[in-house]
Specification:
Elements lengths: L11 H11 L12 H65 L4 H26 L6 H7 L35
Amino acid sequence: MDGATPDPGAAPGVAAAAGAAKRPAPASPPPPAGLLASIKGLLAELPGLVSDRVHLLSLELKRASRALAQMLALVVIAAVLTVTAWLALWAAIAAALIQAGMPWGWAAFVVLVLNLGAAALAAWLALKQARLLTLPATVRRLTVAHRNGVEPGPTSGAPPRADAAVPPTVPQPGAAP
């Protein structure tokens, strides 16, 4: 016997095993061909991943815009109520001054001067904070300092800071140390 045909007298399990040896194995997906196949797979999934992230971003931006609109409306309502309360407070102060015997013209003048003084103080404090809008510490960290110690960036007419970090100079070939 050449072993290719199963023996009829052999046990049934042996005949099945011999037949199975002749049959080709079921087709299984080939293993990835390496790095190139991994990159191709990643690139194939990338549009779906980006699309999901962009969709989530758009939904969150819609929700954030609605929340911002509600916040602005509430701020306007709070501002109107605060102004109303402020006016009522100063009207009561003026009435108390008039009740105490001060002429109404002088009472109005006192209220006016006190309000203008408070407004001037608030404006001065706001202007003092305005320099922070230029993000000076971030600009200092993200820009390359010049060799002469002057920090690049918007010039405000102020002299360079004495504590500004000056990088060590690179010795030039042929220069004395």
